[in-house]
Amino acid sequence: METGGLVEIRNLNVDFGTDNGTVHALRDVNLTIGRRSTIGLVGESGSGKSTLALALLGLLPENAESVSGQITFGGENLLALKPKELQRLRGTRIAMIFQDPMTALNPVFTLGTQLVDAQRSRHPRLGRRELLARAARMLARVGISDPEARLSAYPHQFSGGMRQRVMIAMALLCEPDILIADEPTTALDVTIEAQIVRLLKDLHAEFHGSIVFVSHSLGLISEICDEVAVMYAGKIVESGPVKSLFSNPSHPYTLALLACEIDPADEPGERLVTIPGGLPDLVNVPAGCIFADRCPSRFAKCAEEPPPRTVASGHSAACWLVP
Amino acid sequence: MAAADTIEIEDLRVTFAGGVQAVAGIDLTLTVGETLGLVGESGSGKTTLAKALIGLNRPTSGTVRVGGRDLTVLTRADRLWLRRRVQMIFQDSLSSLSPRFTVRKLLAEPITIHGLDKAERWPKVLDLMARLGLAEAQLGKFPHQISGGQARRVAIARALVCEPSFLIADEPTAGLDVSVQGELLNLLADLQRRFSLGILMVSHNLNVIGRVTDRVAIMYLGKVMEEGPTRRVFGSPRHPYTAALLSANPVIDPEHKREKLVLAGEIPSPSNPPSGCRFHTRCPRAQDRCRREEPQLTPAENGARYACHFPLESAS
């Protein structure tokens, strides 16, 4: 029996080369993904949540000029693997559902062909007929009616919600240890989002893997996840069990994000809360706490970078105000 | 309320080629100084309705009256008159700005088109820019040189240059981070007070609609399912579709306590809407009568109207 988490991310740093200089997109990220857990990565645009998800898959864009640290998964450091070895993991042990189901499927192949191809590396010994049968069973499981007939359909014959169900089916056919879902419901209507969230929850109870759920929505994360990591400008500023983090949010950025959530109980005339200022420059990263220049509670000590400080068991926040 | 201060929509229908009934008989009124929210899933006809109010979609039947004048019989010259009263900000602001115009030209163009005195108007434009948080240094830039948030502000400024009475805002906060979404909504509220604007806000974000609109209309397959004062409709929905939308809306729930009402299926095709009540194929309360007979909008005691044979109990 292995101990510890399924994935241990230690001191992960990712730099991107751009025309304006080197962008330090992730800095000293530490995160443990537990077995069979659902962990949410939440943050605004530019927080690095998608970069972190892509690093897990070894799919960082070509301009990632320096990647350091460790991502330990099944005894191997993913960052030290050769592209071929990573390729072996993708589609067998790690799978991903992308934000836009419209572009994630190939328009010129039938669903059957795409669902068969997705299983090839996981089940190299099975023939097309068996793989198609598996695909049909999985389509039925994700709520697509008449699955055998649908296998010969093309993606354009499906709505956005149906395509996202197909993407989920495709990912689960690989029986992955980690399923990464990057904003899987952002392009969908709220009623369809609720269907997909319920489906992911039901399926999670059946399959043995962990889910990494990337989202900008605190509400969605709180509904679906057990653990959450709040990201800001390339750092994890607070992380912990969902119950602990939402009942006792301790980083001023988490508090600010929660304050921005519109509470329907507020009086309509009241001003909406915003976070003044903008993201810091990630080329010349300012010293000290990364949130300091927008933080309402900053004080002299914030010129020094705060380490993660323990709020409660498994719950930490990188802020000097945490005792 | 004088007709001059309203947009009145009466039995409006917009049918596209192929028999797609995008808007299938809608009655609504928008008054200056108030914000009306339009909510519904993709394919419910929200944007088609919004575009009909500025004459971008021709009604197949029914009328839209702006300040008492029927849009269906407007001449070319009348359209200019209409544009001074009703303006729209589109969902994708960047693509609504000509890439070959500088911000200065984009903001000056409405003044020229309407033959207004530029010397008198320009200081007001600068004032508007200041209110929107746009620096004068932006005037020389082209749309591709400014950020998405700035493009959205330029689109708002351009819409308000000629001081219209009504603003149609199609998904004004879509794609914005929560930290800046509030800023934009606060800004619209300020501008509304300043110009006593009537705003039609199209959005699928129920939190935003619940917070900033005075009245709300819930659309489904081209029809209004429920309509009325926002707080009352959201506080005590009578139509099962409204209740389902509100239930599906994610809220912070770390204890995973809330049981969601999840609708089965998807919105049917508007070219072949279901018989009777359009919502019956997905409605948890549907009975035989709903398949046969289309419910009409009925006034409720709380000032709202709903179209349902078997409405939910009033919470009050």
Describe this structure in words.
The complex is a heterodimer of chains A (323) and B (316). Chain A is of the alpha/beta class and 323 residues long. Chain A has one domain: Rossmann fold, CATH 3.40.50. Chain A is 31% helix and 24% strand. Chain A has helices at residues 49-57, 83-89, 101-104, 111-119, 128-141, 147-150, 160-173, 190-206, 218-224, 242-247, 252-260, and strands at residues 7-18, 21-33, 38-42, 64-73, 76-77, 94-97, 178-182, 210-215, 227-232, 235-241, 309-312, 315-317. In chain A, strands 6-7-8-3-9-10-12-11 form an 8-stranded mixed beta sheet, with helices on both faces. Chain A is globular, with a radius of gyration of 21 Å. The mean pLDDT of chain A is 92. The longest helix of chain B is centred in the middle third of the chain and has 18 residues, at 178-195. Chain B is globular. Helix content of chain B is 32%, strand content 21%. Chain B contains 10 helices and 12 strands. Chain B has an 8-stranded mixed beta sheet with strand order 6-7-8-3-9-10-12-11, sandwiched between helices. A 4-stranded antiparallel beta sheet of chain B has the order 2-1-4-5, with helices on one face. Chain B is of the alpha/beta class and 316 residues long. The A-B interface holds A 44-45, 159-162, 189-195, 197-198, 216-220, 222-223, 242-243, 245-247, 256-258, 260-262, 264, 266, 268, 271-275 and B 41-42, 177-183, 185-186, 204, 206-208, 210-212, 214, 230-231, 234, 244-245, 247-256, 258, 260, 262-264, 266-267.
Give me the secondary-structure topology.
The complex is a heterodimer of chains A (323) and B (316).
Chain A lengths: L6 E12 L2 E13 L4 E5 L6 H9 L6 E10 L2 E2 L5 H7 L4 E4 L3 H4 L6 H9 L8 H14 L5 H4 L9 H14 L4 E5 L7 H17 L3 E6 L2 H7 L2 E6 L2 E7 H6 L4 H9 L48 E4 L2 E3 L6
Parallel strand pairs in A: 3-8, 3-9, 6-7, 7-8
Antiparallel strand pairs in A: 1-2, 1-4, 4-5, 9-10, 10-12, 11-12
Chain B lengths: L5 E11 L3 E12 L3 E5 L6 H7 L8 E6 L2 E2 L5 H10 E4 L13 H11 L4 H14 L16 H13 L5 E5 L7 H18 L2 E5 L3 H7 L2 E6 L2 E7 H6 L4 H9 L39 H5 L5 E2 L5 E2 L10
Parallel strand pairs in B: 3-8, 3-9, 6-7, 7-8
Antiparallel strand pairs in B: 1-2, 1-4, 4-5, 9-10, 10-12, 11-12
Helix pairs in contact in B: 3-4, 3-5
